[in-house]
Amino acid sequence: MTAPATAPTDADLLETVSSLVGPAAHVQLWLFPLGSDGVPLRVVIPIEDVPLDPAVMPRLGTRVAEMGEAAGWASLVLVWERPGPAWLTTREEEVVAAFRAASGLPLRAEFLSHDTGVRRIGPGTAA
After folding, report:
1. Is 104 left (phi over 0), alpha (psi -120 to 50) or beta?
2. Where do runs of H (alpha helix) occur along 21-87?
3. Contact at 8 Å (CB) between 74 and 86?
4. What distance in Å separates the CA atoms of residue 119 and residue 53, rounded to the nearest whole number?
5. Bridge partners, residue 32, by sequence
């Protein structure tokens, strides 16, 4: 008998994101939807060529929220992929904050895929 899936820990999420996305190669936003039990659903959605512009994020966040509502997502893990250093610029922080405000879905965790790997970002993870 297979044991029921359990919600991943922060370390589990970092390991999963690091193995699936890894160091940045493109500018993309990755969506990892979670069910109401906190377990990742069996879908990963990469959105290529996301403009890192705060003005675009309200519309993108709204569309992601609509997708999530239609599909029954309870929350999301986000991965912002872009070549560059391990720390967000001020403009990138504005982009992430604008998306966060517009998405309407609870965010379980956010990560940044950068030149040398993946790190956790978001509230409470400042340098």
Report:
1. left
2. 57-71
3. no
4. 21
5. 77
Q: How many CB atoms lie within 10 A of CB 59?
A: 10
pLDDT at site 1: 56
Residues 80 and 101: their CA atoms lie apart, in Å, by 16
3-state secondary structure of 109: strand
Q: What is the mean pLDDT of residues 53-76?
A: 95
> Which structure tokens are listed for 76?
């999301």
Q: How confident is the model at residue 126 (pLDDT cuts 50, 70, 90)?
A: very low
What's the CA gap between 107 and 80, in Å, rounded?
A: 13
Sequence-distant (6+) residues with CB within 8 A of 48 are 26, 27, 28
pTM of the model: 0.91
How far is residue 30's CA from residue 27's CA, in Å, rounded to a whole number?
10
Spatial contact of 96 and 88, defined as CB atoms under 8 Å apart: yes
Q: Is the sign of the CA dihedral 98, 102, 103, 109 positive or negative?
A: positive
Q: Provide CATH code, domain 10-121.
A: 3.40.140.10
Q: What is the mean pLDDT of residues 54-72?
A: 95
Q: Where are the domains of the chain?
A: 10-121
